[in-house]
Specification:
Length: 92
């Protein structure tokens, strides 16, 4: 079991495809892992980026300028003792 006390962060990335690749590689290598997904915007930032605060920009920037930004960070943790092996098999 991976706990806060025995884990090390292997990856923190906003690319879901990269996170999926790393998870599949760890699974194939038999290395236990834990994934945490967090939002990388505050409620105010999300409101501004979704168009609620478009008036703040005085019409100079549209909300669509920000809609492509990632909103999630995928963090993958492994046991500390497995960290070096995990980096090696995942080419990190």
């Amino acid at each position: 079991m991976i706990t806060i006390l025995n884990r090390a962060r292997l990856l923190a990335d906003s690319d879901s495809e990269e996170a999926a690749r790393v998870k599949e590689t760890l699974k194939a290598a038999g290395i236990s892992y834990d994934v945490r997904t967090v939002q990388n915007h505050t409620a105010l930032g999300k409101a501004i980026h979704s168009g609620v605060g478009v008036g703040v920009y005085g019409g100079g920037m549209s909300a669509s300028s920000f809609s492509d930004q990632s909103t999630y960070i995928y963090m993958i943790y492994v046991r500390r003792k497995d960290l070096e092996k995990a980096k090696e098999v995942c080419h990190l």
